[in-house]
Amino acid sequence: MTVTRNKGIRNRNVGTATKLVRGGLSRSQFKETSEAIFMNSGFVYDSAEEAAGRFTGENEGYIYSRYANPTLSVFEERMQALEGAGGARGTSSGMAAVNAALMCQLKAGDHVVAPKALFGSCLYIIEEILPRFGVGITLVDGTHLDQWKAAFTPETAAVFLETPSNPTLEIVDIAAVAEMAHAVGAKVIVDNVFATSIFQKPLELGADVVVYSATKHIDGQGRCLGGVILGDEEFIEETLSPYLKHTGPALSPFNAWNLLKGLETLDLRVNRQTDNAEKIAAFLENAKGIQQVIYPGSDSHPQADLARRQMKRGSTLVSFELEGGQDKAFAFLNKLNLIDISNNLGDSKSLITHPTTTTHASVSEDLKRHLGISEGMVRLSVGLEDADDLIADLGEALS
């Protein structure tokens, strides 16, 4: 089967919407409109010589879907075009992407700096897994640049951060941290899942590597797991790809196809979801029983100026704290009729969770208090429903 590449998209400066629909597009000899699913594990060769040439790199072509697959290639090239990266690799999940982005480049004796405000599983990798292999770590308050500056050492090899953070929506100054990290030769890895590539471009702000849980907004419809890692060509080809090839966190071709379909509507969906999030944040600001509302697109956000500088919009997540602690939060969640209780996010359906007992249940009570993850806090991932219906549901549950 011959595959024809649509090379023109890569050679022209086109808009985001065009990249999301046509980036990396390829067609077989059947000239299908939708991308084909190459749902196979291996590939055959016309001769033993051709097989040998594939393995030495002398002959181009696919070898094994754990290494690469035509459907994955389209997804990776489309993500590369969207992010403005030199290369991209898909993974089986977002956490596989986080783990691989760190482990592929670290060795015993290296040092990693990260903010304390991280998703629970990311914090587990940083605090629990890396030290087992002789990697030193320092956790800082991500909003305090003086703590970042004091944390860097000649051994610092990598920085890992998420901004906005989960679930307190803290904003880390990517450009400032990148400048400090590069001064000691460290690479900056940014988990950009909350902001999405539509609203924030970490590579343009100085980051070296960007990771996504593609499960979230990229699929955005609750269908499948996936992740992706992006960076310059040297990092992707020489550092990351061998690690992925030999450790095997491969993305399923079927999931890659689902993610391609999600990318086609990503811009439309996250902008509509953000329209809804802005209206909901404004409603909650004036609602009774709400102690605090956190939304990067609101003037009330403690880092509103920084959010405006590095994000185009506030994105789809709103966190808020109810008066009365966990009992009140649970009662509120249980009274919702339209919004679903779920720990996922970035879905077309609005989803809400209680972080201290779900996504951050494994985080110590002291750290949760330090980060402001209170028993009354809930995190709302705003979907595509009518904003008035979502506000009505929230209002009835609050009453």
Question: Structural class, please?
Answer: alpha/beta
Query: What is the succession of H and E elements?
Result: EHEHHEHEHEHEHEHEHEHHHEHEHEEHEH
Put simply, the count of helices is: 16
* Estimated helix fraction: 40-55%
The total count of strands amounts to 14
| Range of strand content | 15-25%
Main sheet: strand order: 3-9-8-7-6-4-5
What's the end-to-end separation, in Å? 62 Å
Calculate Rg over CA atoms: 22 Å
Q: Give the uncertain stretches in residue-range form.
A: none
Global mean pLDDT: 94
Textual characterization of the structure:
This protein is α/β, with parallel strands linked by helices and 399 residues long. The protein contains 16 helices and 14 strands. It has helices at residues 16-22, 48-56, 70-83, 94-103, 120-132, 145-151, 174-183, 196-199, 215-219, 233-247, 253-264, 266-285, 304-310, 325-335, 365-371, 387-398, and strands at residues 3-5, 26-28, 87-91, 111-115, 136-140, 156-162, 187-191, 209-213, 227-231, 290-294, 317-322, 340-341, 351-353, 377-381. The protein has a seven-stranded mixed β-sheet, with helices on both faces. A five-stranded mixed β-sheet has the order 10-11-14-13-12. The radius of gyration is 22 Å and the shape is globular. The model has no long low-confidence stretch (mean pLDDT 94).
List keywords for this structure.
seven-stranded mixed sheet, single chain, alpha/beta, 399 residues, five-stranded mixed sheet
